[in-house]
Amino acid sequence: MVDNSTNNYRARSRMLDVIRKSAPVTRPALAKETRLTSAAVGLHVASLLDEGLIEEVGYGESIGGRMPVKIDIARKSNCTLGVALHDGELLGNVADFGDHSLFMRRERMRPRDTRQQILDSLDQIVEQALGLIAKHQLRQRHCVVAISGHLDAQTGRIIDSVHFPKLNNFDVREHLLKQFNLQCEAVYVTHAVFCGVLEGDMRNEHVGLISWNTGVGWTQARGENLQFTNANPGVRRISHLKIRPDGGRACHCGRSGCLESELGGLAILQRLAETGEAKYAHLDLPGLAALAQAADPTVVEMLSGCARELGQHLAPAVFLSGAKYLRIETCLGLDHAVLVRNLKQGLAQCMHADQIDALDIAVVPDADAALLKGVCRLARGIFFDGGMIRRLREEM
Length: 396
Ligand SMILES: [Zn+2]
What we know:
This protein has 2 domains: 6-73, Winged helix-like DNA-binding domain superfamily/Winged helix DNA-binding domain (Arc Repressor Mutant, subunit A), CATH 1.10.10.10; 78-396, ATPase, nucleotide binding domain (Nucleotidyltransferase, domain 5, 2-Layer Sandwich). 44% of the residues lie in helices and 19% in strands. The chain has helices spanning 6-22, 27-34, 38-50, 115-135, 172-180, 189-197, 233-236, 259-263, 265-274, 285-293, 297-321, 336-347, 353-357, 367-384, 387-395, and strands at 25-26, 54-59, 69-73, 78-86, 89-96, 101-108, 139-147, 184-188, 206-212, 216-222, 325-330, 360-363. The strands form 3 sheets. Strands 6-5-4-7-8 form a 5-stranded mixed sheet, with helices on both faces. The chain starts with 5 loop residues before the first helix and ends with a helix. The structure holds zinc ion. Zinc ion (ZN) binds next to helix 8.
């Protein structure tokens, strides 16, 4: 039996990390990589097999004697649960450790829904997800709830939600623990989308993500561990960077003229309404996106102008982050090529042409899918590496 002392816990984490990164791997290879004795490796492997966290998946090459058994993370029998509260929607997802989505529910909330109605929908989605997990006898390892708006760094409480103001001061961790005995972590939507788009070569490079929806979000990292390197304080709260020195629109943060309150989707809706044209009087974001896709000249011009300004104000963050990849997640409907072109024009006001040319810039094609994938990846990451959520918090 393996006890729960700190040393054992560390050895076990080290082993899991090696298995996760180098799987399938044999016991002798594990001993070599972790510098643990073969006896210790044997004990930990037995314990992890017992917990269903790893499985034996075949044989490695023999170096004389028996062929060693190869070990991998049990990808199909372990899963994570993810929920996103974003842009007036509740999204629920269950993914196995091989990144396959097994469950997906979406519930559109209306602005007049009460707090209780929102929570009922949340509970219903979680209940359905847990039902599916039980039915397929999966082992649910961790849960992440991604929330747009702001979270209290210490408690994870929603403190400044644009989409779900009725959930302000709501503690999602406490709620899910009480309702379902479910351990969860609350994270920003932007971080979750970010985790969902990290693929292939991007996993080892500096990447910046702009999310341009109701508001404006920015996140950056290197590698899959989301090491935020927001050394510049201006980068940290970039959505509330003051871009209109002499006033500007009131922002939900209590100030005015912020990047978000000037260039976010809600500001664009306001500006369109102010044109006095009847067709812009009662637009919502899906309506705005539909007009943009139908190439409505006023809408396209306004979005293009905002994209340029966005590029201009985000250029220092892009430059300082050393980003090699830049990804944009947006629901505003502007044609991807037009968006990238205008963003580049904005960046060019603060960056050299060769610096912009060196950037790989693209729009995230399916932000919802990226969001859900990211939520589950984060949950898995937290399960394997509890430190990740701490690092995230430190950067908030
Ligand atoms: Zn603000």
